[in-house]
Design a protein that fits this description.
about 20% strand; 3 domains; Dihydrodipicolinate Reductase, domain 2; alpha/beta; binds adenosine-2'-5'-diphosphate
């Protein structure tokens, strides 16, 4: 490590925050100190870290005085309010919420795809949406080889993407249903147990959900190619961990499934798991707790000239959130980019 890295995790008590702490410890992130921050509700509680635990402190505008790097995973409102204070204190922010992703001042980074975008950061780096991360990790090497022109994606997203309260809601509803009780519905607009909800985040004026439009816009920003057209349907399913995606791509150059398989087996962060004869294909049960993005069911789209279908699965809390953020932090250190050029860049 070239310089001191005093690290803070904002939202350390949440589903992603806890995974963040465990990923930092597992990857031996070279922090000189780690501070756990959350809301006043959690102040004084303990958060497990490495072989010990951290005492959680309340997040305030003053929290970043002695911090070099803060990883935020505490929702968009918290990031909007507090990330500018962090930058003003000279602290670099990696933010897991959607608050800064489409801001031109903020690189939106998946290290396997566009780590170079970090070089121009101004203090806040955005971690993309979980569904987008796993898709672009698999699509970028195919794009480099054959120029993707259109992507049609349908997602099957786990409840952990909504946070700890949604994990609890699915558990509780399953228990209530098995006990012949009326399931309580608090987090989602409808029952999630034994159901699928084609509704993630809010509906927009064009009748897409915000999650669907995140996939469209973030993919173009990360892949740095406005010619890639993306249309998405995002569905919440009663799975605890692991997002699955059915992805159809249309390319400029012809790419056979065998060529795509060969390219993907060399691609960073990707694991090809594709042997239909042996009933081998990626599943969220297997992807949970793993770092890789798994790709299978690779086959030609026989309805168009240059089309491929595939099935992409990853742990949404790991590669889709905590791991990607920690990889960004590692890349910032490796590139010696742990500095803020303009402390006022994000102050209103
Ligand atoms: P807390 O546990 O104190 O509410 P999840 O995505 O699993 O719901 O987790 C959200 C995380 O963001 C939690 O750590 C939560 O802390 C934190 N959080 C939510 N609102 C705030 C806030 N206003 N200030 C600081 N942390 C917040």
């Amino acid at each position: 490590m070239s310089k001191q890295c005093r690290l803070a995790v904002v939202g350390a008590t949440g589903a992603v925050g806890r995974e963040m702490l465990s990923t930092l410890a597992a990857r031996k992130f070279p922090a000189t100190s780690v501070t756990a921050l959350a809301s006043a509700r959690s102040a004084g509680n303990k958060a497990p870290f490495a072989d010990g635990e951290l005492t959680v402190r309340e997040l305030t505008a003053e929290s970043f005085k002695d911090i070099d790097l803060a990883i935020f995973s505490a929702g968009g409102g918290t990031s909007e309010q507090f990330a500018p204070h962090a930058v003003a204190a000279g602290c670099v922010v990696v933010d897991n919420s959607s608050a800064w992703r489409m801001d031109d001042r903020c690189p939106l980074v998946v290290p396997e795809v566009n780590a170079h975008a970090l070089d121009k950061h101004r203090g806040i780096i955005a971690n993309p949406n979980c569904s987008t991360i796993q898709m672009v990790v698999a699509l970028k090497p195919l794009h480099d080889a054959a120029r993707i022109r259109r992507v049609v994606v349908s997602t099957y997203q786990a409840v952990s993407g909504t946070g700890q309260k949604a994990i609890t809601e699915l558990e509780t509803q399953v228990r209530q249903l098995f006990n012949m009780q009326e399931p309580e519905i608090k987090v989602y607009p409808h029952r999630i147990a034994f159901n699928c909800l084609p509704h993630i985040d809010v509906f927009l004026e064009n009748d897409y959900t915000k999650e669907e439009m995140k996939m469209t816009r973030e993919t173009v920003k990360i892949m740095e190619d406005p010619k890639i057209a993306v249309t998405a349907t995002c569905v919440r399913v009663p799975v605890f961990y692991g997002h699955s995606e059915s992805v159809n791509i249309e390319t400029e150059k012809k790419l056979t499934p065998a060529q795509a398989r060969a390219i993907l087996s060399q691609a960073p962060g990707v694991q090809v798991y594709d042997n239909p004869g042996q009933k081998m294909y990626p599943m969220p049960l297997d992807a949970a707790g793993e770092d890789a993005v798994f790709v299978g069911r690779l086959r030609e789209d026989e309805s168009i000239a240059n089309g491929l279908n595939m099935w992409i699965v990853a742990d949404n809390i790991r590669k889709g959130a905590a791991l990607n953020a920690v990889q960004i932090a590692e890349e910032l250190l490796a590139r010696n980019l742990l500095r803020v050029q303009d402390r006022n860049a994000f102050l209103a």
